[in-house]
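Field reference: sequence -> structure
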Amino acid sequence: MIWHILDIFFVVFHTGIIIFSLTGWIWKKTRSWNLIALGLIGGSWLFLGMIVGMPGYCPLTDWHFDVLEKLGRTDLPYSYVKYLADRLTGFDFNAKMVDHATLWSYIAALVISAGLNLRDFWNSR
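Structure field:
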């Protein structure tokens, strides 16, 4: 029972973080938090990834996949976004395509967020 609750928690929480990281720059009040979130995500992907030997490492994915393994799920993909897309649609998306879309979406959100945060900073001076 607890594993099913944790599974639902991770789906909601992790998906919420993904949605916020891609859209949080839209609203002026959340832009600085969005940039912080994007920095933490990038730091995890790069620096934690180097430490654990997995580029693109995310501790939330690791913890969620541990829960899914407790629930008997096997053959989990490397990417949480692929897992989520497959789970929500029932399709088996190409892992490379999902990884590229994830990376380019992250880069676009980071560039937009950084640009808007800089603009807001300069306008407030």
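Note: The radius of gyration is 16 Å.
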